[in-house]
Amino acid sequence: MYLQQRLQHDKLTILAGRLAASDAFAALPVFTNYVTYAINPNPFSLGANDAAFFGPPPGTEWGAQATYLITPAIQVAAGAFNTNTNSANGENHGADFTLQEGNKGVLSIGEIDYLHNQRTDSVGKPGQITAGFLRSNNSFPYLNNPLAHSDGYNAVYLMGQQMVFRPGGPGTSRGATVWGAWTFNSKDLVSPIPMLWGAGLSYEGLIPARTSDVASLCLIRTEPSKYAPATSAEDGLELNYQWRHSRYLTITPHGQYLWNRTGHESRNATVLGIQLELTL
């Protein structure tokens, strides 16, 4: 629920209302090719460390954001969002409009994007590099002592994707795209996952007769805080195949393997599933 206005010949876009930082920041188009919540739609660490970053489901925050296209290849964005944890967790079925319920301050985000060969007349292979900075001055409980609190944190993220193989040449989308992502939070005393990195490969049209299907592989590694009790450093590997039956139906069989690196009591796990996407 928000208002949107475009200015400066559509170079500037402003939004205000009920928003989610995760909808506009720290995302790459290739992330939507995966099933795992570790990377789709954003690196999971950003929301695990601060619920106010996550969007629906289940919740949103009051906020405002702006995006400006400096050149066809360089875009900057900034936003400020409320930090109500109850609202972020979907209190009152997403209709908790209260500004402060034990929280304070704002979550501020700035981002710059380099959109490489993204124009319709570009001959080279498309890519994107995104860098961002987060700052929250909300109060967060210590992981090793919930009765004590620390004021805020700083965080950064860096991610990028690049098409490396395009057999059909310019103007076609079939081919291979590689990507990488990294996040870092400066205060592991209040951040369960102060660091995350991931990398992957996504190939559209791997089977010549199925040019719209997408096969994707990724590896995600999380580094937990040393102050968080009973946690382990979990890695995840995903392999999936999007079978695009039509413009209305996509079927995605997928497999994930999760393992721990710190000898935690929980065992490694293999997860198999099928995701159905129906567009009406």
Write the layout of secondary structure elements.
Layout: E1 2-7, E2 12-19, H1 21-24, H2 44-49, E3 61-71, E4 74-81, H3 85-88, H4 91-94, E5 107-116, E6 127-141, E7 149-165, E8 175-185, E9 195-204, E10 214-223, E11 234-244, E12 249-260, E13 269-278
Note down, in words, how this protein is organized:
There is one protein chain. This protein is mainly beta. The protein has one domain (2-234): Porin (Beta Barrel). It has helices spanning 21-24, 44-49, 85-88, 91-94; strands at residues 2-7, 12-19, 61-71, 74-81, 107-116, 127-141, 149-165, 175-185, 195-204, 214-223, 234-244, 249-260, 269-278. Strands 1-2-3-4-5-6-7-8-9-10-11-12-13 form a 13-stranded antiparallel β-sheet. A hairpin with a 7-residue loop joins strand 6 (127-141) and strand 7. It is globular. It starts with a strand and ends with a strand. The mean pLDDT is 92.
Attribute tags:
280 residues; mainly beta; 4 helices; 13-stranded antiparallel sheet; Porin; single chain
Q: Can you describe this structure in just a few lines?
A:
Helix content is 6%, strand content 50%.
Shape: globular
How many separate helices? 4
Instruction: Identify the CATH class.
Output: Mainly Beta
- What's the architecture in CATH terms? Beta Barrel
- Strand order in the largest sheet: 1-2-3-4-5-6-7-8-9-10-11-12-13
The fraction of residues in strands falls at over 45%
Measured distance between first and last alpha carbons = 22 Å
The counted number of beta strands is 13
CATH topology: Porin
Q: What number of domains?
A: 1
Helix content range of the residues, please?
under 10%
**Radius of gyration using CA atoms only:** 20 Å
Name the average pLDDT.
Answer: 92
Instruction: Classify the secondary structure makeup into a structural class.
Output: mainly beta
Any low-confidence stretches, pLDDT <50, length ≥5? Answer: none
> What's the main sheet like?
13 strands, antiparallel
Order of helices and strands: EEHHEEHHEEEEEEEEE
